[in-house]
Fold mRNA guanylyltransferase.
Amino acid sequence: MVQHAKRVALNPDNPGEVVRDDQLKHELKSVCQRLSGSPHMHRFPGSQPISLLREHMGELSDKPWLVCEKSDGVRYLLLIHRINFVVHDRPSCWDNVLKGGVGSCYLVNRKFEFIAIPTLDNFLGERLLRSLDGTLLDGELVYDEVPLPHMDGEDEEATAPRPLRLQSTFLIFDALSVRNTFIGDLDLFDRLRAVQGEIIFRVRNEHPMPPPVVPCVLTLKQMFATADVDFVLNEVIKGPQGGNLPHENDGLIFTRIDKPYKCGKTSDILKWKPRHLNSVDFQVIGMWGRNDRGEASMRYCFLNAAKHGVSFGYTSIWLDDEQHEMLEAKYEGRPAIIECVLDDNWIQFHPPQDQSMPWSSAKKVPGQAWKFLRVREDKHMANDIKTVDGVLKSIHSGITESTLIQALGRSRDAHVSGSSRS
């Protein structure tokens, strides 16, 4: 049985206080634009992968790529930036930062909000923060289940399983700038080398013996050659005991080695998910109808996609009473972003045709339909219709684990035979 320590570090879904001060937000957005090389000051500068389709398989075999497991965490950029002016509307969490000084570490979410992380400031310390100023890293914040450290007096040779605790880990898979040097124009290998040498090494050198519980562990994500996709799928993710990963996983990410970092959507990063996890983020909205007593009653039942940043009606969805009540309690009838998967054996929901009709007149028919997976609090807009169509194409393309292993295995065999001839 998994046990968890009561002491938990950063929560990936709610890691801290969002910056509200307008002057500070403008400063941080301006810094992100400078460090990322993005032409857009008010747009999240992180790269966005596209779904892996059959048409990409040839390029995936012929071009240089790295593959890694797709962690089921929350995507953030990590910005380290020293503020050089007085902030009047200071985040309350700054009161205990570096003896009352201004915070330096921010997680940047996909809404382009900046979340102050004072515990990371305090852990890194003033000297290291000055050294790392002007850094913008790309990664994912996850909860890792790790064994509790041994306490003084405990038998470290004991064979009984250690209780587990939740540790926050920021898995760095790319970088845009390191210590005020833009590296987004380098290839992936050089960008990762810069992170290892200029960030990870400095942190470990400053803290060779970190405390048992830290707010967030900074580490590079493990990357592999595409020829090793079999190993990634069957050893890294699944493993002989049902899984070697200390966190949840929902697929694979392929990244071109020889390409620079690109802000926004890019075909240089391909995401693959097994069919049952291939998902879309929709906006769910409510409709008014009548309950059994004839009273007006709202129910979440419609999904919106987006086109050019504007929401539009896409389809309906069946949410059970527990899911609806959770959304109603949290959003009070306001739209919400939810992640959905296409289930062949779910419920096609047909709401009442008029709001004066009772909900009991709605029709539920077994069949293929979108199924609620979870709320996406880190997003404020539904996926664009092009993304929805891409996910559907990915689902219907039927790329399975076996497909990847066979295709990239042939690539590996070609590399081996080519090397033997040289």
